[in-house]
Every structure is written in structure tokens, then in C-alpha cells.
Amino acid sequence: MRVVVTGGAGYIGSVVAEELVAKGHEVVVFDNLQKGHRDAVVPEARLVVGDLADRERLRGALRGAEAVVHMAADSLVGESVQDPAKYFRTNVVLGLALLDAMREASIDKLVFSSTAAVYGDPKRQPIEETDETEPNNAYGETKLAFERALPWYARAYGLRAVSLRYFNAAGASERNGERHDPETHLVPIVLQAAAGARPDVTVFGDDYATPDGTCVRDYVHVVDLARAHVAALDALAAGGPSRAYNLGCGGAGYSVKQVLEVARAVTGRDISVKLGPRRAGDPAVLVASSARIARELGWAPTMQSLEAIVGSAWRWMQRRDLA
Length: 323
Ligand code: UDP
Fold this sequence. Notes:
The protein is an alpha/beta fold. It is built from ten helices and 14 strands. A seven-stranded parallel beta sheet has the order 3-2-1-4-5-6-11, with helices on both faces. Strand 1, helix 1 and strand 2 (26-31) form a beta-alpha-beta unit. Bound molecules: uridine-5'-diphosphate.
């Protein structure tokens, strides 16, 4: 298939593009390079530098494509609480502009990168797709708003869409790892501290109702996430229905303190820690049940241990002389 990957120069998008190319798909990456990196795009893919607000460029990129993986977004929980207007515009308004352009181009298959943040502060763990969605930050709210448009577009226009609700992506492929500027995500921040690129790590709150008081998250390897996109596209190509799936490793998840411990063990370096206040919009625990995607698409994570995930990110940093 010819597949357009919006946001395909970003952290997760670049690994999705790699995985699609490896499976023999023709890939067009559409990315404005605001947060993405030109050199993250696998050479076999065609890069179109453009913004979702640029209708003409988007139209050009979509021409002849059979499916879209939509990953271009603003995705920082804290920022979304400070500046919701930015999030509603990028994630909802421009997302709907993409759906319009897809209709015009007669593209009826979409894989959408959604998030565990659609669940808010869940009443039970692990979270299932049928659990209540009640976002407690604007990021989750905008991702949910877009998801909720999809069944209506399916009914009226025949669009079929798989929404993948990522829990915490981490780790690196051979080629691509996480490099945001500024970095806000825990695993790269902890590894930067281990590498001496930052003085310490601030733990955002240790008074949560969790075993050690710090937030618990479900870390999933970025290559496993990318494999799920390929599986979702294959299912759509085979005529499969619109669906939403959680993507995590399940289990008990890992606390912020556990991530720090694993990072110390993996790197053999000391990491200094400061305690800070809670970050707005952070639920105490987010752990996925990925039973639905296992059952329906045969997806399961292959790299479940945090050691393997953090280790791949550390080795990627070392290969790039960042550690
Ligand atoms: N976190 C932290 N210090 C940091 C960055 C993150 O304590 O410098 C915590 C954050 O509060 C959350 C967890 O680490 O509980 C994972 O945060 P991240 O931003 O990596 O992902 P999110 O869960 O927001 O998608």
C-alpha cells in the first residue's frame, strides 16, 4: 500500500515509517519538521515538508495513497493544560482538515495515534477500551474529540479508522530514538541525567496513592508500538472494522522511582534526584489491558521488560555520542 504518515519525522512516527518500509509499503512522510527531524526519516520514504494547515501540500502528499497513519499532533500533557487553544487547533481542527482532504482523495483507511490520556483518572486498572473516557487534561480531551468524530465519518462517508491508544512509548529502534527539545518525557530525561547532559531529575510528586508514592505508567517499546500500526493497517486493508485499541505491556506498570532504579542499573551511572510538586493533569496510575488488540489483531509486545526498553534507548544515545 502507499501510506501517508503524518508526523512521520517525529519520535514514534519515524519508527512507524521504518516498520512500514520494512514490510514493503510505500511510505510518504508528511511533517512540518517543527518537532520532527529530517534525518529521522528512513531513506526509502518520501518526505513532504508541510503543515496540516497547508491544504495544497497536504492534497499533493495524499494523491495516490490508500491509507493514512495520522500522528502529527501536539502531545504534551502539561503544555496542554497551560495552552488548550493550541491543542484544540492542532489536534482537532487540523485533524478534521486531514479527514476532509482524505475524503477528497477517496482514502478510506486511517490509523490514528490516540492516547491513554483519554481515560483521565481511571477508576480501575488495567484499563479496558470500554472503560469510561473522562480526560483530565486538554491533550487527552482533544485526542478523544477526534476519536469521537470517527464513527460519524464512518457511518456517513465510509471511512474506516483504527485508534491506537498509546500508553508510555519509550526505547529506540536501531535508527531512531527520542529527541525532543525541550525534552519532557521521563525516560530520556533520566538517561540525559545519567549521561551528565542535565544535572538531575525532578520527580513530580511522591504523595500519590501508589506503592512508593510516585506515578505508575505502562512503558511500551516504540518498535512494538510501530508493529501495532502495521497490524492495524493490515486489518483495515483486509476489510476490518473501525476500532479503538489500547497499546501497553500491562502488568503492574513501573513507578517513576522504579524507572530511576532501572536506569541506574542499565547505565551503571549515578542519577541525582530532586523532589518537585505534582504536574498538572497527571493521573496516579495508567496501566493498559491490551487484551483486545491481542485477541483481534494478534499483537503482543515483544520487549516487555523495562530493562530492555530503557537499555535500547541508552544504546541509541551511545551510538549517537549522546552518552
Ligand atoms: N515525570 C517526572 N519527572 C519528569 C518527567 C516526568 O516525575 O521530569 C513523571 C510524570 O509526572 C509521569 C511520568 O513521569 O508520572 C511519565 O511522564 P511522561 O511525561 O514521560 O509521560 P506521560 O505519562 O505524561 O505521557
